[in-house]
Amino acid sequence: MKRACLAVFASGSGSNYQAIVEACKDGRIDADVVLLVCDKPGAKVLERAKIFGTESFAFNPKDYASREEFETVIADMLDERGVDYVCLAGYMRIVGKVLLERYAQRIVNIHPSLLPSFKGAHAIQDAVDYGVKIFGVTTHFVDETLDGGRIIDQGAVVYEGSDIEELTNLIHNIEHKLYVKTINKLINNKY
Ligand code: GRF
Q1: Are 3 and 77 in contact (CB under 8 A)?
Q2: Cα–Cα distance between 146 and 51 in angstroms, integer?
Q3: Assigned fold of 4-187
Q4: What pLDDT shows up at residue 167?
């Protein structure tokens, strides 16, 4: 049977991209990352993709007339490479209808909060500001809303300290394991 093909979309550092690729390479995920899509041409994730030998497509959304236009280019690339699932990993952009229609129920995201609490780009800081003690991570199917869509997995950690960097590291460690679990569910149709 053909190994599942994954694409990862990221805009920043790419620690989740790396966690997914490492799990594919060492057999914890029975799939290959065949494409990295990045909307920030200088992002660190592109360096990681070079190191791990993943083909990357870096683009500047401003070079396209509309989201539909760049999503059509991306969707064609995904089709050409036989991508089964798209994993958003710090992709700081709402996914539009072109990708959602072509990859319906096959696009997932990871978010650093226990959704539906604390959607948006500053989830960890927002949770700290709110006085939260149980922090967490959520993987979910992607729809047209910000951090919406049905939840697949969640992981949690109790943290009562005040060091945001320490907390962020704890959350990232959960993310890296949780995404592996979620991708395995997807490729084995057990979600
Ligand atoms: C992660 O916290 C992820 O949950 C969020 O963006 C961050 C990306 O981190 N969506 P990295 O680029 O994978 O290190």
Answers
A1: no
A2: 31
A3: Rossmann fold (3.40.50)
A4: 98
Whether pLDDT at 191 is above 80: no
Query: What are the residue ranges spanned by the domains of the chain?
Result: 4-187
DSSP class per residue in the chain = -PPEEEEEEESS--HHHHHHHHHHHTTSSSEEEEEEEES-TT-HHHHHHHHHT--EEE--GGGSS-HHHHHHHHHHHHHHTT--EEEESS--S---HHHHHHTTT-EEEEESSSTTSS-STTHHHHHHHHT-SEEEEEEEE--SSTT-S-EEEEEEEE-----HHHHHHHHHHHHHHHHHHHHHHHHTT--
**pLDDT band, residue 2 (cuts 50/70/90):** confident
Q: Alpha-carbon distance 74 to 59, whole Å?
A: 10
Measured by CA distance, the residue closest to atom 1 of ligand 1 is 90
The rounded Å distance from CA 1 to ligand 1 centre is 31
> pTM of whole model > 0.90?
yes
Ligand 1 site, residue 111, Cβ cutoff 6 A: yes
For this structure, is 140 an active site residue?
Answer: no
**Has residue 20 got a pLDDT over 90?**
yes
